[in-house]
Amino acid sequence: MDHRVLSFVSKSITPFSLLLLLYIFPAAETAANMTYKAFNLPTITFKEGYSPLFSDFNIERSPDDRSFRLLLNKFSGSGVISTEYYNYGFFSASIKLPAIYTAGIVVAFYTSNADTFEKNHDELDIEFLGNVNGQPWRFQTNMYGNGSVSRGREERYRMWFDPSKDFHQYSILWTPKNIIFYIDETPLREINRHPAMGGDFPAKPMALYATIWDASSWATNGGKAKVDYKYEPFATELKDLVLEGCIVDPSEQIPSTNCTDRNAKLLAQDYSNITPERRNNMKFFRERYMYYSYCYDNLRYPVPPPECVIVQSERDLFRDSGRLRQKMKFGGSHSHTQSHRKHRPGRSSRRRNKVAGGASKSGRRGSAAAAM
């Protein structure tokens, strides 16, 4: 476990709470190279589920095709996309992030349909934000529905472990009723569909993406710390690939009735419902590692969006800006920037089963990170 965490724990919590910490986050104490296969789901090869999105010369596939590395160097970043679109699903991979100096780097694992529905796209993000040496990785989750890019629903967190040392399983659950973001089997955030959300709840078929790219203009300290290419290549590795869901043609405007049974099966899975034990784990994580939440940002949202469930123990931690009232427990202060347009590699529209060829540089909209 990180020495800063141990220092804080020894001074600030009881022996019982320490045991709870280790129980909830065993990942921090596991041996090196341990692989997480959350929920014991069957995995696929790269060829069975993915194709290059851009800069395939910076994509390295393992000999058995069950893992791959995405590289960033001075020439380009790189990315992959699922071969199919899905009408709801569970998307997961064990990921190891770049090490050493990672300022300005963003690694993204997300679902989107921005290139099929350019003006009203849906999106679910897990974005990892690099940092300067000695500072922990940060990451954010976000949700867009029906092109609601001006109404980003981002939350930002600190890692409780070093994601560059070991693989951890990162997962996105998306059902007609709810969305859950996971690390290993710990839920970080749940969004339940509320009738008042309307089209803001993602409902159109999406593909799964994984990318690494240069976000020097905003990702670390508001763009003050940029990618330093003397440390290239920067590599992120993915394995234990899971793509579970109902495959559909994104050009179909009417939802496929063929997905009814598949979606019912998805909703019945263990990972689609948060047990009381996991909910306690999520509460523990959010109260100690979340440093921004849109639900508590009364400056952006004088009336919280309808899906927000205000938790008083969380509310007490945040100012009206959605930022923490005090500095993070493990060092550093935080500032919040307004959402703005950031460019990320995309792809041209295509039918399902069509493999992308060549590089694409079209931008897509995302949320601004609180890069500190």
Automatic annotation (TrEMBL):
Pfam family, one: Glyco_hydro_16
Key words, A-Z: Apoplast, Cell wall, Cell wall biogenesis/degradation, Glycosidase, Hydrolase, Secreted, Signal, Transferase
Main EC class the enzyme belongs to: transferase
Signal sequence residues: 1-30
Subcellular location per the Swiss-Prot or TrEMBL entry: Secreted, Cell wall; Secreted, Extracellular space, Apoplast
Enzyme Commission identifier(s): 2.4.1.207
Gene Ontology biological process terms in this record: cell wall organization; glucan metabolic process
Major place of residence: secreted
SUPFAM superfamilies the record matches: Concanavalin A-like lectins/glucanases
Family matches, as Gene3D superfamilies: 2.60.120.200
Record-annotated GH16 domain positions: 34-238
Basic residues bias: start-end ranges: 337-354
Low complexity bias: start-end ranges: 356-372
InterPro entries found in the cross-reference section: Beta-glucanase-like, Beta-glucanase/XTH, ConA-like_dom_sf, XET_C
Region annotation Disordered: where it falls in the sequence: 329-372
GO cellular component: apoplast
Post-translation changes: Contains at least one intrachain disulfide bond essential for its enzymatic activity.
GO molecular function: hydrolase activity, hydrolyzing O-glycosyl compounds; xyloglucan:xyloglucosyl transferase activity
Free-text function comment from the UniProt entry: Catalyzes xyloglucan endohydrolysis (XEH) and/or endotransglycosylation (XET). Cleaves and religates xyloglucan polymers, an essential constituent of the primary cell wall, and thereby participates in cell wall construction of growing tissues.
UniProt family annotation: Belongs to the glycosyl hydrolase 16 family.
Protein name in UniProt: Xyloglucan endotransglucosylase/hydrolase
Originating organism: Solanum lycopersicum
